Amino acid sequence: xxxxxxxxxxxxxxxxxxxxxxxxxxxxxxxxxxxxxxxxxxxxxxxxxxxxxxxxxxxxxxxxxxxxxxxxxxxxxxxxxxxxxxxxxxxxxxxxxxxxxxxxxxxxxxxxxxxxxxxxxxxxxxxxxxx
Length: 131
What we know:
Elements (H helix, E strand, L loop, with lengths): L3 E2 L8 E3 L11 E4 L5 E3 L4 E2 L11 H32 L7 H32 L4
Antiparallel strand pairs: 1-5, 2-3, 3-4
Helix pairs in contact: 1-2
């Protein structure tokens, strides 16, 4: 079973009203994040991720995307952030532990702020006020 994502916003929060045992590609579905509606065959398939027992597969996909994003922030931005911190005087070059902690905090802050903004954007789309 693969996780299906909304073709409009990429959310995995998909709802179908059918309780049928056999799934049909022309089944009506909707996105709980942005309000898109269409047929099941229009959904995007996510890369297969094996969720832990009892965990929603949509959550597992979102978690993997978030982990990958945090990793990319750290790889791409860690050094420039460290340089900016040293040059601005936030931390000295000899305080390796302090510098490491501040870089980690900045990466985590950027990560959290981005995910929060995505959630706000999805709510705006769902409420019809997104541009």
